């Protein structure tokens, strides 16, 4: 399963590296598009991260270390019972995900499932409060 985790990390890292390189160094396109469709501005997005330790006797210390890593990252976040919600620029949130994964592995996890959801809008910020404020 570690091979799958490395593959997952590699694929997502490649995706985000390509995304950010395209944003900072646009490649010539064969299709004539307006600039707004070829680059993504630095807008706030929402990201939900659930870390599930597999084959671990006591999962809570592993999960706690992952949450501490997110707290240390400084990104806006909200700890929920089943996931941690984050808000910020995608690159910052992705780094927080990688830090949380590393902290969970350092805390003794041998195998993890990372469930990640991202909500973004093309030309607008996304806020956690816009989804939940009316229910509070």
UniProtKB/TrEMBL annotation:
Domain of life assignment: Bacteria
Every Thiamine-binding protein domain range: 48-135
Cited Pfam families: Thiamine_BP (PF01910)
GO CC annotation terms, alphabetical: cytosol
Similarity comment text for this entry: Belongs to the UPF0045 family.
PANTHER family, per the entry: UPF0045 PROTEIN ECM15 (PTHR33777:SF1)
Protein's recorded name: Thiamine-binding protein domain-containing protein
Organism in which the protein naturally occurs: Flavilitoribacter nigricans (strain ATCC 23147 / DSM 23189 / NBRC 102662 / NCIMB 1420 / SS-2)
UniProt lineage: Bacteria, Pseudomonadati, Bacteroidota, Saprospiria, Saprospirales
């Amino acid at each position: 399963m570690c091979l799958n985790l490395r593959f997952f990390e590699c694929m997502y890292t490649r995706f985000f590296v390509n995304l950010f390189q395209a944003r900072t160094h646009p490649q010539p396109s064969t299709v004539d598009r307006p600039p707004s469709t070829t680059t993504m501005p630095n807008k706030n997005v929402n990201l939900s991260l659930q870390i599930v330790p597999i084959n671990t006797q006591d999962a809570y210390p592993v999960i706690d270390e992952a949450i501490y890593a997110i707290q240390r990252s400084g990104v806006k976040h909200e700890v929920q019972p089943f996931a941690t919600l984050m808000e910020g620029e995608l690159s910052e949130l992705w780094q927080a995900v990688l830090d949380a994964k590393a902290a969970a592995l350092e805390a003794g996890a041998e195998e993890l499932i990372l469930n990640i959801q991202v909500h973004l809008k093309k030309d607008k910020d996304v806020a956690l409060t816009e989804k939940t404020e009316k229910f509070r």
